Amino acid sequence: DIDGLRINFADGWALVRCSNTGPNITVRFEAKTEDRLKELNDEFVGVVNEYNKKKVYTYKMNLVPANILCIVILILMGIITLIIMPDVFQGSNTLILFITMILYMMLHEFIHGVGYFIGGTKHQNISYGICLEKGIFYAMAYQEITKKNILISLQMPFMVIGVITYVIGLIFNLKLLVILSIINICGAAMD
Length: 191
Known about the structure:
Blueprint: E1 4-9, E2 12-18, E3 25-31, H1 34-53, H2 64-84, H3 94-118, E4 126-131, E5 136-141, H4 147-171, H5 175-190
Helix pairs in contact: 2-5, 3-4, 3-5, 4-5
């Protein structure tokens, strides 16, 4: 794991890293002379201060009501599904479900990217990938984005391959689509 950046010079070093005790950036220096120490300090603290001038969005939300709402929606979807399709979970081929689920997760992240694009992110600033260490697919915007852009991106998979596909699956008796839609809504709730 990388937890900071250390740069060695012939006459000293500088270390910039996130604090372990709070939401701060820690900067440390060592140099052979006081003048060089001041130079390192001025340069690196200047970079950190310039970074802090950038507009960074931090949203704090109480997720308990949202989590309760998601649980209620999932329970209702489960009840509705069992009433309309009582045999929905019978006879499912586990391998097909697993492969389709992976493809659906990739589609979920692609739709996040479409949401970023609709919200104004330039397509060249949208990146897709997989983090094997965490076992997740991802879509990221590499530019400053607005709260509206974030909300559009987060809601797109929930609606497009969650709610809408769930209703289509119920109408046309597509068991796999119903199961995948419920799984996607669980994943979208975690977004």
